[in-house]
Amino acid sequence: MTYKVAALYQFVSLPDFRDLKSPLEHLCADLGLKGSILLAHEGINGTIAGAPEAIDSFVAECRTGPLFQRRLDNLELKFSTAAEMPFRRLKVRLKKEIVTLGHEATDPTERVGTYVAVEDWNKLLEEPDLVLVDTRNQFEVEMGTFEGAIDPGIGRFSEFRDFVARELDPRTHKKVAMFCTGGIRCEKASSFMLSQGFEEVYHLKGGILKYLEAVPEAESRWAGDCFVFDERIALAHGLVERASPREENAGE
Fold first, then answer.
1. Is CATH 3.40.50.300 correct for 114-241?
2. Rhodanese domain spans which residues (predicted)?
């Protein structure tokens, strides 16, 4: 059996997120899904795997079913496959943030930077005055990144604030573009940078996974593999599995 893997997120106001935990757990259990889902006031974030028809049913319920009451109408989704189940169990957790930055003035439900579609990303990278920043952790960057990207050298996403304060200045860095695995970290990072006075902030819509899925390898500006937080470890162009399984890692 080939498993279907769905990486999903959406920044959206979910004031009732605590009440969603139990019915979401029951939905996943009924569909035989495994993986990790985070719920917070600011939205949903997760990666789950299961039979293809079960994943499709889950997505349909999120988008149009009664559970979320059509609030997940802009759900960001990336699909890939796995030869073996890449998760050992199902975890639905309640969090203060779906991706932890720890900055109260940052609210992606209110404003974010400019989305850049994957087909326009290479053209943006050619602009000479662009500052390109990889918002991921250092060990992820070491596995692969875009040519010319700045590695912030962080061990967790919450350290990105210190990197910006130390290395970037809105008066001199006029145009900043960012990227991450699936889009969620750079979307929140763009909201943070706007709150710090940066005016022209771009981020790759759908993240590296969408880029590797859509852009032919011959046209790619990506070098290396993309780390993923499940037992597949890394994906290459076409979202092909690259490495052998190991213990799953936390995604923040």
1. no
2. 126-220
